[in-house]
Amino acid sequence: MRHVHIIRLVTLACLLISLGALLAVGRVGSADAHPLSTTAVLLTVADDEVTGEIQLPIDRLAIAVGHDLDAASVLQRAELERLRTYVSDHVSARSANGGDWAVVVAGGTVADIDDVDHLVYTLTMAPATGVVTDFTLHYDAIVEELVSHRIFVSERTAGATAYTSLGGLSWSQKSLRVPAGGASASTGFGSSVRLGIDHISGGADHLMFLLMLLLPAPLIASRARWVRSADTKRSWWRVVHVVTAFAIGHSITLALASFGLVEVPTRFVESMIALSILVSGVHAIRPLVPGGESWIAGGFGLMHGLAFAALIDDLGLGRGSLVANLLGFN
What we know:
Blueprint: H1 2-27, H2 30-33, E1 39-45, E2 50-57, H3 58-65, H4 77-88, E3 91-95, E4 102-113, E5 116-126, E6 135-139, E7 151-157, E8 164-169, E9 175-178, H5 187-202, H6 204-214, H7 216-224, H8 229-258, H9 266-285, H10 293-314, H11 319-329
Parallel strand pairs: 1-7
Antiparallel strand pairs: 1-2, 2-5, 3-6, 4-5, 6-9, 7-8
């Protein structure tokens, strides 16, 4: 029975952590509470050059450069120039034949993107030949210092309004190929599959929530050793039900919010995610709904899906790309 006591201690520890998270969300601003402060690189490809913008979350940028930043301080002339130089040093482009492109990072404004302050620079990249062909984009600002950071790259051709997802950059992958003719909707599918895996495996909120709901299964299984093997199998089927219910709930609101059919304030979503971990922890110790782990997982999965939907919406994807990304992600 020693392992049973260990499981209960883990449950108690997660309860305390989730309670602290719930209280923290109520104290801090929404920018601090948001778990998806990501960089977006939006590219527009013309015949002779590639233009676009880079959206950097100021809270993550502060970590990368090693000193405090806010929406006001980044706009001070000296700071704006220093940060522009920092970004310029971390972005480059190269043609398939190895020729380096001229890259210019300019401007500098602050934009509120999904309740998070971002520093936005314009980007211009031009090949020496004067003709844009397929090229490799290298970008590692912030992510070189913050391994958990993610960078999303989208592309559109000149004259188009909607973007198509090209993929994501991270600490382990800092370059990607950009097609001169524009990306197809299926291009983002593979990257979205990888993003979905990273999202669930690296999302502490998801893992803690599911852990709390899954803890009763090994407890039941340990008691079932002295009963029937059928009882043990039934307890492990509960694991499948819980994970599936969570995935369904997560997918529903992710799709609805991404298509603009549902909009919920970030602060509320973050509070509900912290609450979901707390409720699932209490349920693991003393069931609130006996045998109802799947219902809890599905219900709170709706909230977890909303947390990620805003990010996809901010990428400005067209409907075809959006559908491909949602399918790949789910």
